[in-house]
TrEMBL record:
Organism this protein belongs to: Croceitalea marina
Transmembrane segments: 20-43, 89-117
Membrane topology: Multi-pass membrane protein
Keyword annotations from UniProtKB, A to Z: ATP-binding, Membrane, Nucleotide-binding, Transmembrane, Transmembrane helix
Residues covered by the ABC transporter domain: 370-603
Record localization: Cell membrane
Gene Ontology terms for molecular function: ATP binding
Name assigned to this protein: ABC transporter ATP-binding protein
Record-annotated ABC transmembrane type-1 domain positions: 19-336
Amino acid sequence: MNYFKKILRFAIPYRKYGFLNIFFNILYALFSALSFAALIPMLDVLFKPDQKVYAEPVYKGFSGLKDYLQEYINYRVTAYSGDDDMKGLVLVVGLVLVLFLFKNVFNYLAMFFITFLRNGVLKDIRNNMYKKIVDLPISFFSEKRKGDVIARITSDVLEIQHSFLSVLELIVREPLTILFTILIMFGISAKLTIFVFVFIPIAGMIISRIGKSLKKKSDRVQKEQGEFLSIVEETLGGLRVIKAFNSESRFYRTFKNSTERFFRFSNSLLNRQNLASPTGEFLGILVIGVLLWFGGKMVLVDKTLDASSFIAYMGLAYNILTPAKAISKASYGVKKGNAAAERVLEILETENPIKDVSDSLTKETFEESIYLNKISFKYEEDYVLKDFTLKVKKGQTVALVGQSGSGKSTIANLVTRFYDVNKGEILIDGVNIKNIKKKSLRGLMGLVTQDSILFNDSVKKNIGLGKENATDEEIIEAAKIANAHDFIMELPEGYNTNIGDSGNKLSGGQKQRLSIARAVLKNPPIMILDEATSALDTESERLVQDALEKMMRNRTSIVIAHRLSTIQSADCIVVLNKGEIMEQGTHDELMKSGKGYKKLVQMQNMG
């Protein structure tokens, strides 16, 4: 129930729909019970035409309310029909029909209003999850598979709607239906009604035994769903590699094994769930059978109950079965929903370790320097950077070089605060970046990565990501600086051409130039280039390099370089090895020293 309460807080904005639902459910429950009680006068007209009431009955207090109501309806029927019994029958049938009509109208209205609450909660949970996914640090998703996150925001949230939120409909309606029905049943025969109470705890015990393992089984199903969605997501992302290495059958086997487990877990869960309905129904019929025997004895032998009241009583007893079954089903729903809610709330309640401090600053300008002061950082166990110190003055271009795994890209991740340092501090103009608002810090920086991350949208929208409400002229100007304007104009619809999923309709060089245009449009004082040309052919590299040089003019740049030919004009080249600085200086200085940098240049030239 703890998860249920947490999910329920999402219903607060829609509480007016909840109250309307409760109001109409109360009316539904009342009319549901009355519609069966109204059968008694109809049966009296049919089976006791000789017992007409010609004098208006006198009310003798609450204890005689049942007899008074019965006699009053008989009196009204007698007054209306006179000697024509069919007129009386039509009146009573009309009364029953009107009561059933009201019952169903109120049922519809109750369902109508709860729909807004259910779908509103569903929308808000999804919006909150998406907001949280975007807000959480990159490290969170290196532990979670993408498919699992997709499963949580789709099927798990739907499961909450089907289970938890359908329970909201039952919380008021079904218990009240049972309550009103039992009150009328007590009015007809207290002795007979005690029999119903014997049944309810026995049924409850049996049903709760079945339901205990549902949460565990449901959790397994949802985890497996996340698993095979991850496989689908990875397959679509790596389709070229899968085909190139003839690995289709291998991936198919992995997917087939996952769906096989999903098949087994789902069967186990649904079969356990399906046991609820027949069990509940049999227990219900069992009690009806006992009531028929016991009530029949009261009518035929003891003469303490008349036949029409007994028939109506049986209708009322059956009227309890449906809500009782719904309540038992709902208890399963809560158990199933618990597993889904746990997975959804795990994301919603994850604390973001990289957050703004209460008195964080908004920094609009960059004036002096970026200073990495004795920083150490590790992703898991081993430190990637150890006691690393570097100063980048305003207007300088600093290049970071070194073998793969030496910590170059980590520096870019730390300066942009995608991760926080374990030791030391990073200062911008003397202010620790932990004391600057994240949005403001990242507003000072432009990022061009090795993998051009583009979105399934138009060229214009992809470049425009760099600046909200950018004009067409600004977007074209940015594209020209990035040497992208000419190829964009050759596309079928120019700047309005859709570039496909991840920009797959473009070449590597074209994608990279769009990424540069995006960074140019943002026009930040600090540029971070993470191996921006390493994946390109020579022709594309020349165009991209030219675009980068145009962009880096009058800016402070941190360039993570793989191809050393691209950074010879840098103000300072820092050579890294296993997270530590081996040497630093200009290209000429480092070539003269003849250490690590010269060896790297010679290796690349030989290649």
